[in-house]
Amino acid sequence: MPAAQNATQSMCGAPVRDITHITPIIAGTSGGAAIIGVAVRVWMSGSDFWLDDAMCVAALVFAIPMAILEFLMSGLGFGKDIWTLTPGQIYRIVQFTWLTEIFWFVAIGCTKLAFLFLYLRVFPRQKLRKVVNVLIGLGALSTLIFTVIVTVNCLPITYIWTSWDGLHKGKCINLNAFVWAHAIIDIVFDCIIFALPIPELIKLKMSLKKRIMIVAMFSVGGVSVFLSLLHVKS
């Protein structure tokens, strides 16, 4: 059996690949940083804890089980060539991937809402606040819609993690089209969120140096736009 397995692993002369260690490293470091960041934010907010803080906490609450699932998936062989895994491992990995997608959509949505609620706390101009309130409504609605769609993207739901074997029957949406639609909406929404406060920040009565520093600080969130573009490419 070991000899047969080794022969399978070197199928077509390709080297045996194993990058199962990458996911735990990324999940552990980024997750640890997120926990520390949110904990510090909540501690500093104190009695001023508001909706933007609550959204940060909510994002973390949904991100933690996502990270745990990533660790479990790596233990099952996520990161190895599929022909080296047993059918049971594949079923479980695909199932856990589906669950992480659900948690991911909610966590991303809560993160966007955290920025928007922060704007309501910081900027008093009524015209801007009306725009922000509209964006909050759209952000909450889009998060709900995308989360529901990814949850039931196949019917029956079990077909999500059994469709690969060709032994089960079911129907699925065009997942590729869904991913593209979400990516485009996500990038546009992020651009609007991070561009929205810049005119207000430029108008602040302070030195040019301080204004540049504040605009740069708020623009750090633009990193998520860059990451979204990489996500689309992948």
Automatic annotation (TrEMBL):
Taxonomic superkingdom: Eukaryota
Keyword Membrane included in the entry's annotation: yes
Record keywords, A-Z: Membrane, Transmembrane, Transmembrane helix
Family stated for the protein in its record: Belongs to the SAT4 family.
Every Rhodopsin domain range: 39-232
Transmembrane segments: 25-44, 56-78, 98-120, 132-159, 179-199, 211-232
Protein name: Rhodopsin domain-containing protein
Chief location of this protein within or outside the cell: membrane
Membrane topology value: Multi-pass membrane protein
Taxonomic lineage of the native organism: Eukaryota, Fungi, Dikarya, Ascomycota, Pezizomycotina
InterPro entries in alphabetical order: Rhodopsin_dom_fungi, SAT4-like
Organism this protein belongs to: Paraconiothyrium brasiliense
Subcellular location: Membrane
